[in-house]
Specification:
Blueprint (H helix, E strand, L loop, with lengths): L2 H7 L6 E2 L5 H11 L11 E6 L3 H16 L5 H13 L2 E8 L8 H21 L3 E5 L7 H7 L5 E12 L31
The structure holds flavin mononucleotide.
The site of flavin mononucleotide (FMN) has 9 residues, from strand 4.
Pfam families: Nitroreductase
Keywords: Flavoprotein, FMN, NAD, NADP, Oxidoreductase
Cofactor: FMN
Length: 196
């Protein structure tokens, strides 16, 4: 697979089986995250690795968080999350160490975290693994964040479910990049994607 093939074939999946990346493999994958663009070299990304028996423990914390965030969270949703967080081969909590008073604006700090997460997803794919980035209300719960070791000024940016893709992986149709691209020659551009 050429590097371009690799980029053009990545797709998120939650159809994930064992094995998950070993510690050594994960370390290499996270080295790719350290290549993300990062204004001011703030290194705002944080990764909490959840494996093995820690998964059901996290699942219960997620359930408690869901109930904190929405006292009427439906039971089927709670059970689905409990199962996913208990059984995904590896979970990486994506943390952000944010500096609201820094001259680098918060949105740039958050983008650096997202760029690093994208590198993680690509590195997973490049090494034969797969994953998906998930969020939900719980990422806004400071109690859950603190339980993970991400108290303010940290916050949660979501979770990566990680493992080996299993079963037939569908290749989602991707949009034509031309719809999102326009050449500027002095007048404001218009994008095909914005036409109604
Ligand atoms: C910040 C962030 C949070 C996301 N949260 C969820 C989520 O909670 N549930 C979900 O199904 N997809 C979520 N997604 C989308 C998936 O990660 C994924 O991008 C989507 O399934 C499309 O797959 P693709 O990456 O192959 O295009 C999230 C994406 C981002 C960037």
């Amino acid at each position: 697979m050429t590097p371009m093939d690799m980029l053009l074939t990545r797709a998120s999946t939650d159809h994930l089986a064992e094995p998950a990346p070993s510690d050594a493999q994960l370390s290499e994958i996270l080295a790719a995250a350290m290549r993300a663009p990062d204004h001011g070299k703030l290194r705002p990304w944080r990764y909490v690795v959840i494996r093995d028996e820690a998964r059901p423990v996290l699942a219960e914390r997620i359930v408690a968080s869901m109930k904190r965030m929405d006292a009427e969270a439906p039971e089927f949703k709670i059970e689905k999350r409990r199962k996913r967080f208990s059984t995904m081969p590896l979970i990486l909590a994506l943390g952000m160490h944010l500096r609201p008073d820094h001259k680098i604006p918060l949105w740039e700090q958050e983008m650096a975290v997202a760029a690093a997460a994208m590198n993680v997803l690509n590195a997973l794919h490049a090494t034969g693994f797969g994953g998906v980035w998930v969020s939900g209300d719980v990422v806004d719960d400071p109690v859950l964040a603190a339980e993970l070791g991400l108290p303010a000024p940290h916050r949660l940016a979501g979770f990566l479910f990680i493992g080996t893709p299993e079963g037939e992986q569908h290749a989602p149709k991707r949009p034509d990049p031309a719809e999102f691209t326009a050449s500027w020659t002095g007048k404001p551009v218009q994008f095909a994607a914005d036409r109604t």
